Amino acid sequence: MKPVIHELVEDEFTPREVPEFGLDEDDYARALDNLVQANVDVIPHTADGRVLLGYREDLPLRNMFWVFGGRMKVGETLADSAVRALRRELQLDADRSRLVLNHTYNVRWGARSVAPEEHGFQTMLTLMTYECTDDEARSLTPADRTHGWVRWHSRADLRQLEESGSGLLHPFLPVVLRNAHLL
User: Fold this and answer.
1) Whole-number Å distance between alpha carbons of 122 and 137
2) Does the reported pTM lie above 0.90?
3) In the prediction, which pLDDT does 70 show?
4) DSSP readout, 32-101?
5) pLDDT in tens, 83-140
6) Best CA proximity match to 73, nearest among 63, 64, 83
7) What average pLDDT does this structure show over 22-40?
8) 155-163 vs 172-179: helix axis angle to the nearest 10?
9) Quick one: DSSP state of residue 2?
10) The pLDDT of residue 108
11) Those residues with Cβ within 8 angstroms of residue 64's Cβ, 6 or more apart along the chain or in another chain
């Protein structure tokens, strides 16, 4: 059974356009110091169990593999955020019906992309999975500066990276992949 996402919209809510970033860096830094951010990340995978990971250029997780996503914008549903992130980061026009809610995590990252980087930030991270078609899987490539490159990993590849103690995998990534039944 596919998990259900309950999202309530009061009649008085007014949708509005939000710029891509939304805040200047100083305001964003103050927000990160004082608020918990809502993020949606997606794990693209294939029917045979391969997982697409990106080599991150940004904090947190710089110089490590991670999945794809980012913060929600005002007025978005979880699916809206997931589809927008996949388009922005991978040039993928995702089919909403193939997004599957996986887990929600309360994550406190030790670093962030805006000064002071060492303050870190906290996020309520909703993880989703997305099973790619063969055509989609062949076409995925980094589309923004978040990831330097992307690579498909088999379960055996991921286990080997984990067992070797590779610095390419944040210790949280195998947990996320196991919870999604992809490792």
Assistant:
1) 31
2) yes
3) 93
4) HHHSPEEEEEEEEE-TTS-EEEEEE-SSSSTTSEE-EEEEPPTT--HHHHHHHHHHHHH-----GGGEEE
5) 999 999 999 999 999 999 999 999 999 999 999 999 999 999 999 999 999 999 999 9
6) 83
7) 93
8) 150
9) P
10) 95
11) 55, 56, 167, 168, 169, 170, 173
DSSP state of 145: S
C-alpha triplet 154, 128, 32: angle, nearest 5°: 115
Q: What tokens does 167 get?
A: 């610095």
- What's the CA gap between 89 and 23, in Å, rounded? 20
Task: Give the span between the Cα atoms of 123 and 183, in whole angstroms.
Answer: 24
Q: And the tokens for 34?
A: 């004082």
Q: What share of the chain is helix, strand, coil (3-state, %, to 5)?
A: 30, 30, 45
Both tokens of 168, joined, read 């390419």
